[in-house]
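for the writeup, i need someone to sanity check this before i put it in the appendix. the sequnce is what the collaborator sent (i think, or maybe the updated version? ugh). structure was predicted straight from it, no edits. if anything looks off just tell me and ill rerun, i have time this weekend
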Amino acid sequence: MSDITINEGDEYTAIFHGGPFDGTTDTRTATSDAVDDEVTVYADVEGLQTAFTYKATKSRQVLDQTSVEYEYDAADSDPVDDLQDRGDRSGEFDRE
């Protein structure tokens, strides 16, 4: 990644590519004098909190605005069935 100047407490924009957060952005706060190489974001999938991992691939700084692009890493994320493979689970937890 490119050399950028960021300090602990500075905000930067995370841009997500791929996975369930594709095309979304998030404002993050640096916890050290560097941006996060990897971030984990969470979403509810069928009522379960699911972790999705994204890895930094590119960063840029224009004046005082820093942005970092993150690519979805399926191997390090919680497994999730594709929507078309989920089927009808409406009665899966019914008790007799």
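The beta strands are 11-17, 25-29, 38-45, 48-62, 65-72. The chain has a mean pLDDT of 84.
thx in advance!!
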